[in-house]
Amino acid sequence: MSDVQPTQPIDPEGSPTMTQTSGTAVDTWRHPVNTGHLVMGIAFAGILAVWALLISDTVDADDLRWLAPLPWVLAGAVGLVVATQVSLRGRRDRSATD
Amino acid sequence: MNDETSGGTTQTPPPPHGEPDQGPRVSGEEIRDLGRLRRTRHDKYVGGVAGGLARHLDIDPVILRVAFVVLTFFGGAGILVYAACWLLVPEDGSERAALDLDVRSRTVALAGAGILAAVALVGDAFGNGPGGWFAWPLVVVGVVAWLVISHRDRRRAERAGTARPAPGFPPPGSGGPATAYQQGAATWQHPVAAQSPGAPTFRTDRMRDPRKRGPILFWFVASLVALSLGTLGIVDAAGASVADSAYPALALGIIAAGLLVGAFIGRAGGLILLGFIALAVLLGTTATDRWDGTSVRATPTSAADVESVYDMAAGEIIVDLTEVADLEALDGRTVRFDGGAGRIEVRVPAQALDVTVDAAVEGGGEIRAFGMRDDGWDSKLSATHDGGVDVPSLHLDAELVFGEIEVVAR
């Protein structure tokens, strides 16, 4: 569908329509970054990578001591950056609206 | 209390302005009225369950969050209640939950979940294995029963051509568009009363969190996980070498991909919980794959043969000291036993040696020493064996993370 619809009510089916928000056309399948999902996705993917290294004997079990925290550090760092970026962008958008 | 029911929910008018807040702001009757319970949309870390329950009970959500985490370690009671609330309780402004039931059935189901959690808790307390596992099959039976009944009901509704009416809700700025309870107090804002005449009709269930655009990914990812695991199982059965941990690893990979996609496109709610389940299984199976058991068995015949430390990552340590000929040479010595997961058994002579034992199982397990016993989480036990008068003395120090420690005199 190519109809431009008002923000509320949103199409109940959640179909990939276009939604008008503050004069900007936005694809409804996309949404603001969900930091929680992003962080946990990176953490799980990182843990999987560590598991792959371990199971393929690329690293020794003793290396887990420093490898195990890495996915969480990476996920946390990305989460902080994204959360900060989202916050700054939101503030910028609000001040632009005002 | 002047309650009125509309659309399966109960509304309580807020107290008059200016009236001092005296005593609890929710009555026992309001607490028991689980039909008005909603998960919070904004005060949430996972599913908004703790926030919603805290609002329902008018307490600090932090208390409930901590309680959920702590109770999870006692028979899984916390995670059971949380999952039940997540699945059964609708979000703010919605009348439909993931497992959609009418208000009365939902109340019964929530009460049932509470009882099951209590059973799991009691089962754990009385040592029916970690988790009181006899409660969990009942959970599975309940979920399957719900699937069958809801599928049947949906079919009937479709045949009858009926549609579930959706409630109205106030327009933005008239008391919170998607908030069922007023902020700060567990009072109910009548959704229709707040709507001014002539105002456009908005529908709560259609007003979405901006992040909730696009398709729900949970069932897609769950189906993909099931399909992938089945395929891997076929490959495994066909003779390929597949490690046990590959199964949860595959599931975790798909869930991680779902979360990463869902962070930008679609809705990935519920996948974090699924990921933690896969992660727990992955850790367990990897530990089993890598350390399928170390067996340390020793029957020293002299004090010199008795080592100061016996250790293992996972497996079994059995040390028999009953064959030591020169027991007097053990006088004043301490022998340590360290292990991650498994079993430690030490046999000492019943006569001619005094033995003191300090044993600890930091995670969960059981300790038995000279007729004394302790079990559960973080078990500790000190015991003494009297081998007679003027006999040498030996100290045993045993530690495990998970498993069983046994010291016997023979």
Would you give an account of this structure?
The complex is a heterodimer of chains A (98) and B (410). Chain A is mainly α. Chain A has helices at residues 35-55, 64-67, 70-97; strands at 4-5, 18-21, 24-27. In chain A, strands 1-2-3 form a three-stranded mixed sheet, with no helix packed on it. In chain A, a hairpin with a 2-residue loop joins β2 and β3. The two termini of chain A are 32 Å apart. Chain B has helices at 28-32, 49-57, 61-72, 77-88, 103-125, 135-160, 218-237, 246-262, 271-290, and strands at 4-6, 9-11, 168-169, 202-203, 294-298, 309-320, 333-348, 354-369, 372-385, 393-409. Chain B starts with a strand and ends with a strand. Chains A and B meet through α1 of A and β4, α8 and α9 of B.
Brief descriptors of the model:
heterodimer, A: 98 residues, mainly alpha, 10% strand, B: alpha/beta, six-stranded mixed beta sheet, two-stranded antiparallel sheet, 9 helices, 10 strands, 35% helix, disordered N terminus
Q: How would you concisely characterize the structure shown here?
A:
Chain A has 98 residues and is mostly helical.
Q: Which structural class do the helices and strands of chain B define? A: alpha/beta
Biggest interface, CB < 8 A: A-B, 30 and 42 residues
CA-based shape of chain A: elongated
Q: Uncertain regions of chain A: pLDDT < 50 for 5+ in a row?
A: 1-26
The total beta strand count of chain A reads 3
Low-confidence parts of chain B, pLDDT < 50 over ≥5 residues?
1-23, 128-132, 163-206
Residue-averaged pLDDT of chain B? 76
Structural class of chain A: mainly alpha
User: What is the first-to-last residue Cα distance of chain B?
Assistant: 71 Å
Strand order of the largest sheet of chain A: 1-2-3
Assembly state (oligomeric): heterodimer
Estimated helix fraction of chain A: 40-55%
Q: Radius of gyration of chain B, Cα only, in angstroms? A: 29 Å
